[in-house]
Design brief:
Blueprint lengths: L4 H32 L1 H19 L9 H9 L12 H24 L11 H11 L3 H18 L11 H28 L16 H16 L8
Helix pairs in contact: 1-2, 1-7, 2-4, 5-6, 6-7, 7-8
Length: 232
């Protein structure tokens, strides 16, 4: 069978996406290891990997009721219509989504980040941060991130949705914590190499190195960000 240009393009695109994912993950791990210390961070990463493989061996846990309820409502008149995404396709996609969510919550439970009701356990996260962070100052900043992200996650409204509110708030919290932790580590790195930046060109009047490092971080982030400044 001849491989069409379109199929070849899709194959190459998938390879590039896989490569980009690996590069981004590798760069993130390197950044965290530099910020928190290689031994504690890679020790933590090893525990995550072990827990993740254990979750792969466990049966899939179904999501709370809203998913099943929504599915029944959507397929009530399926026999009367022709669909691009028919019942069997949507069923497979639902199974995939539920499996991913099950592995995700299983991992977080094994790491003692959430309880059996999917409620975040901030004290456990803060205790673990103390074992990972090399300085009291850095630890205080990361602990503050946990508190901020928990506060933000509780603002997500409990509206009618196929995604249970517990999962939505959990995913929001984890993404928030990961992003802000990265920002703090980037700021720490900038502080160490501050001599490489000619900050006299910036319109900020401050002699505080910590404050200037944060402003430099915002300048770097703002200049390189694209998606954040799109409205669609």
């Amino acid at each position: 069978m001849m491989v069409t240009p379109f199929i070849l393009f899709l194959a190459l695109a998938s390879l590039v996406q896989g490569h980009d994912f690996f590069v981004n993950r590798f760069a993130y791990n390197q950044a965290m290891a530099t910020c928190l210390g290689e031994e504690p961070y890679y020790g933590w990463l090893k525990r995550v990997t072990v827990a993740k493989h254990q979750c792969y061996q466990e049966p899939v846990k179904m999501l709370p009721e809203p998913v099943a309820k929504k599915q029944e409502e959507m397929v009530s008149d399926a026999a009367k219509k022709e669909f691009i995404y028919d019942g069997p396709i949507l069923e497979r996609l639902l199974t995939k989504a539920v499996s991913k969510t099950s592995n995700y919550t299983c991992l977080l439970q094994k790491m003692n980040y959430i309880d059996e009701n999917l409620k975040i356990l901030p004290d456990n996260l803060k205790t673990e941060l103390k074992t990972l962070t090399p300085s009291a100052e850095l630890n205080a900043q990361l602990v503050n991130v946990v508190d901020q992200c928990i506060s933000f996650s509780t603002c997500i409204p409990d509206v009618d949705s196929p995604m249970p509110i517990e999962i939505k708030r959990l995913v929001f919290f984890m993404r928030c914590e990961k992003k802000l932790r990265m920002a703090i580590c980037m700021k720490q790195r900038i502080l160490k190499i501050m001599s490489l930046f000619d900050t006299s060109a910036l319109p900020f009047e401050t002699s505080d190195q910590d404050e200037m490092a944060e402003k430099v971080l915002h300048v770097l982030w703002g200049s390189e960000s694209n998606e954040e400044f799109e409205i669609y």
